[in-house]
């Protein structure tokens, strides 16, 4: 007859059986505690489970160590929340500028402004007539010269379509364009005020 091969790691199988037995005993132990009532004393319960008596003794003898284990270190941010510590006061990060590439314009920068609902371009850069009236922040009324539709704004290697309100005003030569929420939404803009960075993303 063929010899039967010995099972690998017999000690491991033995440990698994002992562990399963301990789990069964623990489950019975918890069941007894769940059924504990006034007619059954705590001492009588321990008599039924002598295996766990040394465990209770060990826990009671090492209660000081258990208290030490409950001390969990937390990071600086969590400490600030718990201690109600105020964050550091920072200065003005400045303006967020987007470099745009237009034919015939060198170093054209656009001001990213979440406070406006339009994209604004001075008359000197683009001309296209359409009647419209704008109410400015100071409540004054200004009549734009026109609207430039579907203007492709090149930022780096990406092109973003945008409509510009054309207004005859004295623009800052350093950043003549103002890009409002419509453009920032199209470009999936992410503004990090703390780092002073603005990130534009393309659908492709």
UniProtKB/TrEMBL annotation:
GO terms for molecular function: RNA-directed DNA polymerase activity. The keyword Transmembrane does not apply. Keywords: Nucleotidyltransferase, RNA-directed DNA polymerase, Transferase. It comes from the Eukaryota. PANTHER family: ASPARTIC PEPTIDASE DDI1-TYPE DOMAIN-CONTAINING PROTEIN (PTHR33067:SF35), RNA-DIRECTED DNA POLYMERASE-RELATED (PTHR33067). This is Reverse transcriptase domain-containing protein.
């Amino acid at each position: 007859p063929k010899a039967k091969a010995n099972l690998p790691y017999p000690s491991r199988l033995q440990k698994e059986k002992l562990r399963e037995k301990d789990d069964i005993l623990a489950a019975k132990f918890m069941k007894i505690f769940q059924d504990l009532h006034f007619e059954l004393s705590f001492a009588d319960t321990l008599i039924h489970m002598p295996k766990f008596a040394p465990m209770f003794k060990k826990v009671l003898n090492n209660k000081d160590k258990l208290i030490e284990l409950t001390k969990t270190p937390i990071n600086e941010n969590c400490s600030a929340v718990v201690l109600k510590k105020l964050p550091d006061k920072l200065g003005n990060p400045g303006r967020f500028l987007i470099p745009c590439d237009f034919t015939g314009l060198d170093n054209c920068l656009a001001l990213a402004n979440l406070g406006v609902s339009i994209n604004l371009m001075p008359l000197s850069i683009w001309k296209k007539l359409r009647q419209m009236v704008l109410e400015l922040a100071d409540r004054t009324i200004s009549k734009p010269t026109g609207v430039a539709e579907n203007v492709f704004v090149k930022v780096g290697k990406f092109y973003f379509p945008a409509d510009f309100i054309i207004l005859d005003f004295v623009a800052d030569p350093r950043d003549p364009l103002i890009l409002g929420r419509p453009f920032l939404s199209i470009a999936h803009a992410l503004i990090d005020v703390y780092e002073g960075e603005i990130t534009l993303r393309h659908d492709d």
